[in-house]
Recover the amino acids of this structure.
């Protein structure tokens, strides 16, 4: 990736906005078309799978298509000792862009369906089994993304990550938010995909714990990478500093 930090942060904001628009908008559409909760969740999960795969493919070459603070943090942690790893400056640009984009995406989805632009969700999700679901979903997501990067298969991320999120909608009790930015954004809409503001903080804590667990599992399963040989470059040359490891919801 050779894009400037400003362009990469913009890609993260736009991608995060589009992702939350897909999640919230498809949830609204599903509830208007069917009263069956199973059908609603199926429609919501399928739209998210297709939308996420497209967004990773589109924005991956620009920013890495993280769309997720825990993915960005994991990429920084694993790459902090390498010359091309994410820097603290990258984090300072990416994380606010992801959160602002997610909030904007929820507002846009509500606007498209003539809902109040900002209406705090009343969908309470405060329960231990839901927090466990978020921990599991996030750990699996981070393990998958870092594992793909470690084995040189990041090209498979659009299909693999989207497929994992689609499956996690169904095998986790929380329906797999697995993303602090998306969690915050979904608090701004009182619709099918919403989450009550009071439920946000425990979800984010569970996601951070899950990300740490996923990172630990990646180190155990794949081991630490061998030290890379020092590159030879002409005097005055400066290595690019891309953000590795796409991506997520």
């Amino acid at each position: 990736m050779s894009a400037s930090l400003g362009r990469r942060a913009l890609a993260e904001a736009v991608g995060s906005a589009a992702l939350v628009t897909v999640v919230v908008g498809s949830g609204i559409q599903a509830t208007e078309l069917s009263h069956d909760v199973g059908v609603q969740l199926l429609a919501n999960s399928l739209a998210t799978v297709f939308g996420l795969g497209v967004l990773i493919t589109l924005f991956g070459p620009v920013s890495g298509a993280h769309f997720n603070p825990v993915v960005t943090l994991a990429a920084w942690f694993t790459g902090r000792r390498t010359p091309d790893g994410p820097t603290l400056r990258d984090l300072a640009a990416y994380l606010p862009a992801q959160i602002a984009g997610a909030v904007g995406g929820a507002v846009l989805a509500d606007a498209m369906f003539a809902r109040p632009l900002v209406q705090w969700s009343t969908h309470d999700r405060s329960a231990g089994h839901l927090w466990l679901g978020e921990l599991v979903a996030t750990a699996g997501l981070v393990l998958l993304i870092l594992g793909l990067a470690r084995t040189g298969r990041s090209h498979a991320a659009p299909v693999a990550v989207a497929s994992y999120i689609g499956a996690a909608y169904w095998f986790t009790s929380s329906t797999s938010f697995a993303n602090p930015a998306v969690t915050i954004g979904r608090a701004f809409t009182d619709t099918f995909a919403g989450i009550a503001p009071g439920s946000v903080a425990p979800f984010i804590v569970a996601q951070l714990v899950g990300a740490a667990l996923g990172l630990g599992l990646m180190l155990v399963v794949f081991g630490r990478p061998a030290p890379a040989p020092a590159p030879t470059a002409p005097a005055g040359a400066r290595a690019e500093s891309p953000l590795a490891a796409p991506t997520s919801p």
